[in-house]
Each structure stands twice: as structure tokens, then as C-alpha cells.
Design goal:
Blueprint lengths: L1 H36 L10 E2 L3 E8 L7 E6 L6 E8 L7 E5 L2 E2 L2 E7 L4 E8 L10 E11 L2 E12 L2 E8 L2 E3 L5 E9 L4 E5 L3 E4 L4 E4 L2 E5 L6 E5 L13 E6 L6 E4 L1 E4 L1 E8 L6 E6 L2 E5 L4 E4 L1 E6 L2 E5 L4 E4 L1 E6 L2 E4 L12 E4 L1 E3 L2 E2 L2 E7 L2 E4 L5 E4 L8 E4 L2 E2 L11 E2 L2 E2 L27 H4 L32
Length: about 475
């Protein structure tokens, strides 16, 4: 009896509670509905923009850009009705917009709920400009609402280029007048020469290669180096390796020379594919190869002389020597890996074989007054098919390496890297630190071969040359 009375009383209380809850929900829905139907249409009710300017990096003409976007936000208490969003130059504009799925150049009658936002997507495809230098382009995106107008500035620099796609060329000179963009591949015929003048810029599309059956002559200068990089110019791509293929030298190639070149962000910087019967020759000076998803230099049966170069930061070896000859004087070789990481390969790898049945005669490998360092404890590997000594020499170098007694024949008067001490003032420029280990440990005889460093500073003025491509140089600050 008492339990029934208690249950009935509890039931009545629960019903009253649920009734109140229902009333509150109804009020909330009503308020929400009222708020939803309220329009914020006073000129004082203003939208917010996530940016006031959309800027594109250099855009190659006749080619679509990446897509950029920004948000239009409604921080008002009610709905804001947008009369139209449009490009000032209308259908003649070289820019394109998409607003919440609706294509421009004009989009009308949009509503943004209180606290909500919409996205505006922007692209451009600039027309050919008939000029060598970049040209500035500007457009205004206008937003009309509440009897007021807001604007977002859209800018881009357009650059005409010379395009190649699967072309096979004879003797040709690339100048610095316009950049060159290579799709698929560019092949230099046997017996022909591609000369590249100082200041020229060569951009390569994904997987694109330059293939040399003849000769390559790169003639950069300190002030105007020749540059090889990806055709993706956006800032987010500047440190991404593997964006294009390789510069490949075929067995018939010879008499190549590379002076003051910057080669970055490909799969392999320079790939020499000698076949055992032909030896590809190349002089490499005052150049920089870095940030490769493969090798910086892969030299199979090549004869390479290099000096004043920086070879750095690859996912595989920075320099891989397979047979042939390689001479290095005052080079800086460093491998801390790329932003994508690093495989377990040493900075310098030297061998006379690929597999048990494939061998290549190694004639001479010599490193003088050079730096070979990186993130691994042993940055040099020397391997012989018959486990015999190879004609290799490291003299007056700064090395990060440990070696067994049997390998000691390769090393003479070297210094060894102490990771507790600072070597470079900058890990990207490879300029020596004030108290760098590389200072004053070079051999003057090797320094006399190339008395000025990569930046054209004397390395013999004090008769105590530093090792590597760059001599420590103190420049007094002017008042």
C-alpha cells in the first residue's frame, strides 16, 4: 500500500519534471527559430574576412595556378544576406572564383547564418605577356551586402617561359632571358652540346629528366648561378625533395662542365650511367647539389673532378662512386637528411661492384681538404668485390667516420668530427662557425690549386687554409 503511494507520487513528480523540460526545449527552439529568421541588415553589421589579400607566387603564363582560399565569416547576431560576390573585371578577368560550389565571376544572393562562414576559392591562368621579365597582375574581389562593399585584393606575378616536352635537341644555348620549363624529358643528342648561360633558370615538372648523350656546359657565375629546381614555386614546396627526376649522363656523353650551378629538390642531382666501356667525364666546380630523394651524385664509371662544391642532405648517399675516377678538393659533403628523412646510407659510398657478376674498375678516388660529415657515426663506406684495398685516399679532411685497421691505408693527416662542437654557423649555408673545427687544418699545397673559395674569398692569405668549400670569413659591420 505505502509502496504504491510512493510510486504514484514519484510518477507525478517525473511527469511534472518532463513537462518543465519540454517547456524549456520549446522556448529554446522558439528562440532559435527567431534568431534564425532574424536578418542583420544594418550597415553596422559587418562581415569578417580571414585575409585582405590573396597572393600567388610567380605563375607561369598559359598554365593554371594552384587553388587558394579564404573565409568570409558572419560574427553578427543574425543572418547576413550577400547581394553579390564578384570580380571587378568580370568575365575578362584572368582570375577565377568559386564560392561554396558556385562558379564566378559573379555569385549572387548568398546567406550566411549567424556564427557561420563560407569559403571562397581562387585560381588564376595568366595569358602570355610577350616579355621576358615578370609582370604584376592585380584583381579585386568585391562583396556587396547591407548597402556596403568589402574587398579582397588578389595578386600574382606572371612569367612567360620556354616550354619543352619530350624534345630531342641539337646544339643549343639556354639564356637568362626567360625561364625554361621541362615536362617529361629533354634529350641532348650525341655529339651535340647544351650550353646554359649565367643566370638561367630551369624548372622541371614531376618525373621530368634532362638526358645528356652529348655534352652539358653550365656557365654560371657567383652573382648569377644557373638554377635547377621544381616547377612548383609555392613556398610549401621549397624544401620538398623528389619533385622532379635527374640530370642523366649517358655513356656517350663526355667533356661536360658545371660551374656555379644550384641543383635541388629532385630525385638525383647528377646521375652518370657509364657502361664499363665508356667513361663519362665532367668537371664540377663552385656548385651546390642538395635535398634529393635519391643521390646527390651517382657516378657509375665516370671521371669527375670537383672543387669548391657543397653536396648535402639526400635520402640516400650524397656521393655514390661506382668504378671510374673521382677527385674532390675543398668540397663540403654533409648529410643530415631531408625533411622526408634519411635512409641508412653513408654520405660517401665507394665500390667497384654492383653484384657478384657486375664489376667496374675503380681507378682512383681522392678527397683533399674536404669535409665529410652527417648524422651517422660512419659517413664513409669503401667496399671491394675481392675484399682488397681500393685506390682511395682521404687527406687533410674533416671526417665523421670510424674505421678498422685494415682501412687505415685510406686515411692520412685527417681530423675527426666532434659532434659536441659546432661546425657550421648555419646548417643551410654551410658557412663555418667562428670556432669551427674546420678552421686552419687544410694543406696549403691543395689550397693553392684553388686559392679562392666558393664565395671568392681567399683561403691562402694566412697560409692556414680551412677545409671544405667555404673559408671562414669575418666581415666587419659598417656603422
Amino acid at each position: 500500500m505505502h509502496s504504491n503511494i510512493l510510486l504514484n507520487h514519484t510518477f507525478v513528480l517525473m511527469m511534472r519534471f518532463l513537462k518543465h523540460i519540454g517547456l524549456l526545449v520549446g522556448i529554446a527552439c522558439c528562440l532559435s527559430s527567431c534568431k534564425k529568421d532574424f536578418y542583420a541588415d544594418s550597415p553596422s553589421d559587418k562581415l569578417s574576412f580571414s585575409t585582405d589579400t590573396v597572393s600567388f607566387d610567380t605563375v607561369f603564363t598559359e598554365r593554371g595556378s594552384i587553388t587558394q582560399c579564404f573565409k568570409i565569416l558572419n560574427n553578427c547576431d543574425g543572418i547576413v544576406k550577400i547581394d553579390k560576390i564578384y570580380l571587378e573585371n568580370g568575365s575578362s578577368s584572368e582570375f577565377y572564383i568559386n564560392v561554396n560550389g558556385q562558379q564566378g565571376p559573379i555569385v549572387k544572393n548568398l546567406e550566411i547564418d549567424a556564427g557561420d562562414s563560407i569559403f571562397v576559392f581562387v585560381q588564376t591562368k595568366l595569358n602570355e605577356q610577350k616579355r621576358d621579365t615578370a609582370l604584376y597582375h592585380e584583381e579585386k574581389l568585391l562583396v556587396d551586402y547591407n548597402s556596403i562593399q568589402s574587398k579582397v585584393i588578389i595578386t600574382a606575378w606572371g612569367q612567360d617561359v620556354v616550354n619543352f616536352k619530350g624534345d630531342c635537341i641539337g646544339t643549343t644555348t639556354f639564356t637568362a632571358d626567360k625561364p625554361y620549363v621541362i615536362y617529361d624529358s629533354l634529350v641532348v643528342k650525341e655529339g651535340e652540346t647544351l650550353t646554359i648561360d649565367a643566370g638561367a633558370k630551369i624548372y622541371l615538372h614531376y618525373n621530368a629528366n634532362i638526358i645528356i648523350y652529348g655534352a652539358l656546359k653550365i656557365q654560371g657565375t657567383l652573382e648569377s648561378p644557373v638554377q635547377f629546381s621544381s616547377d612548383r614555386l609555392e613556398e610549401t614546396y621549397q624544401l620538398l625533395p623528389g619533385q622532379w627526376g635527374s640530370i642523366i649522363f649517358k655513356p656517350t656523353s663526355s667533356n661536360n662542365s658545371i660551374d656555379y650551378a644550384i641543383i635541388k629538390n629532385g630525385v638525383n642531382g647528377l646521375l652518370f650511367s657509364g657502361d664499363g666501356t665508356h667513361e663519362i667525364s665532367c668537371d664540377i666546380s663552385n656548385s651546390r647539389i642538395s635535398n634529393m630523394s635519391g643521390y646527390g651524385i651517382y657516378a657509375q664509371v665516370a671521371r669527375i673532378n670537383s672543387y669548391n662544391c657543397i653536396f648535402a642532405n639526400c635520402e640516400y648517399s650524397v656521393v655514390n662512386i661506382l668504378g671510374g675516377q673521382f677527385n674532390s678538393v675543398h668540397n663540403t659533403i654533409s648529410n643530415e637528411g631531408t625533411p622526408s628523412g634519411r635512409k641508412y646510407y653513408p654520405s660517401v659510398q665507394i665500390s667497384d661492384f654492383v653484384a657478384d657478376t657486375v664489376t667496374y674498375a675503380l681507378k682512383l678516388v681522392a678527397f683533399y681538404n674536404s669535409i665529410i660529415v652527417g648524422s651517422m657515426t660512419n659517413e664513409i663506406t669503401i667496399s671491394s668485390k675481392n675484399n682488397t684495398s681500393l685506390p682511395c685516399s682521404f687527406q687533410n679532411c674533416l671526417l665523421r667516420d670510424t674505421y678498422t685497421k685494415v682501412d687505415s691505408v685510406y686515411y692520412k693527416d685527417n681530423s675527426f668530427y666532434d659532434k659536441e662542437k659546432k661546425l657550421f654557423a648555419s646548417s643551410t649555408s654551410f658557412v663555418l662557425d667562428t670556432l669551427s673545427q674546420a678552421e686552419n687544418i687544410g694543406n696549403i699545397n691543395y689550397a693553392n690549386l684553388y686559392p679562392n673559395d666558393l664565395h671568392n674569398h681567399s683561403r691562402i692569405s694566412d697560409e692556414k687554409p680551412d677545409v671544405g668549400a667555404l673559408e671562414y670569413y669575418y666581415e666587419e659591420k659598417k656603422d
